[in-house]
Fold this sequence. Notes:
The chain is α/β, with parallel strands linked by helices and 402 residues long.
Amino acid sequence: MKILVQKFGGTSVSTHERRKRVIEKIIKARNEGYAPVVVVSAMGRKGEPYATDTLLSLVSEKLNHENTLSIDLLMSCGEIISTVVMTDELLEKGINAVPMTGGQAGIFTDDNYNNAAVVDLKPSKILEIIKQGKVPIVAGFQGISEKGFVTTLGRGGSDVTASLLGVSLKAEQIEIYTDVDGIMTADPRIVSDASLIKEISYNEVFQFADQGAKVIHPRAVEIAMKGNIPLVIKNTLTDCKGTIINNTGDVNLDNIITGITHMSNRIQIKVCKNENINNANYNTLLGILADNSISIDLINVFPEENIFTIDGESFEKFDKIMSNINLNYSHIDNCSKIAIIGSRMRGIPGVMAKILSCLNSENIKVLQTADSHTTIWCLVEGNCTEKAINALHHGFKLGDNK
């Protein structure tokens, strides 16, 4: 029995016309000999009647902050509605389907409401439905706690549901359907000749997802990678083959760079030792920030200064902490962290030199850099973001992949 997990996002199930395309994908899978297991998100986005954010607008902020158990029950409703609507429309095509909550699908979690962790997965009911020749339609983004209460898995949790089920059921692959053709070499709204990445490794796509590209949830990638189940990003509205995510990526690709993404609204922080003489907090600053849940990255620690970046939304909280511990600092607002990603760059000399050459040719000042085996990061001023991404995309000839 070949099992195929197909996950359809909120835009894919938002209208009757789009759901017709979803049904075509399900029927195609069955005709190809697969037993599809379908995961659905809530229909549409904020403003549309059954979208999660619309449901949240029905209740007060007080409930939102003080009764997260209730909020999880409310947020689970959008996905449940989607399962029943899809079941109805499949029935019209002569296909028997069974709508299921996350709990009924066997997803058991802790009781960390709004962002629950999965502690067990028992897909026996799903397997029973498949053996009956029916299609399980599972509500994404949710599970049930060991105490019996509905929980949700955090924003983007339907991708996580799909990966969890794919691994548990030993699926042939997991298809993530969205409103784009797949993962692109850069944001096509920024780079006009951005091209589709046909194959990409788990490690590379994890970097894409973690560094600002919102095509798939990073946790979903991590789960699929551990289970070694291929992921495919596809467009519900086209027949494009999409992007395959696996262990190796595209072994036939000549370019050492796979793609470029970025995170905006970063703030660079510089804390100098000579401006904080006799202040013991200087040596424990990173720990103090961690204790106060301030996330930092691009961390450069030198004998005489510490340099790092924070998200712009954390700046007010950061500033108060620094004031409380009497540490002086300087900062640069509105920066962007450009991520140049490619697993084939490992051990190849001259990559950083070429990156700097591309940016220097456009008179773009590099404020900071960092690197790993698969990614090089450059911090630039925010108003140079688009110019920087285009310069790098052109310099590494990523548009030639079309």
